[in-house]
Design brief:
mainly alpha, globular
């Protein structure tokens, strides 16, 4: 991953807030990055991606792909690896939880579940994150 990739994605999302497709793809890209390593998760958080993801979800509440990708991204950000759990005792996870909480993730996730309750991907990812924050 290029070191500035999460920041570049967040900048694009911020510049094109009204374009659902940009938000959908931005959330998907951030989800993909956060799914890899704890260092990638930290880079995503450092780029203020949780706030951009929550903003996208709030602005495009009726777009199921934005909601699905946003929920997935938040789930990947909050997920801790086995090694992190064993050796770092979750300090990075605590920082990520706080970032999601500060961004207003709980409200966005609950709204996504209400509006898209028949979408199993949204509900599963939202519940996963809500159980952690």
């Amino acid at each position: 991953m290029a070191a500035d990739a999460p920041s570049a994605i967040v900048r694009a999302m911020n510049r094109h807030r009204d374009k659902a497709k940009v938000q959908e793809n931005g959330c998907r890209a951030l989800s993909y990055i956060a799914a890899h390593t704890d260092a990638h998760k930290e880079a995503v958080v450092a780029a203020d991606a949780p706030r951009a993801i929550v903003r996208a979800m709030n602005q495009h509440q009726n777009k199921s792909k934005v909601q699905e990708n946003g929920c997935g991204a938040l789930a990947n950000i909050i997920a801790s690896s086995v090694l992190e759990s064993l050796f770092a005792q979750g300090s990075n996870t605590l920082r990520r939880r706080q970032a999601l909480s500060n961004a207003g993730a709980k409200s966005a996730l609950e709204s996504a579940k209400r509006r898209h309750g028949s979408n199993n991907g949204i509900v599963t990812s939202a519940n996963s994150v809500l159980s952690e924050i």
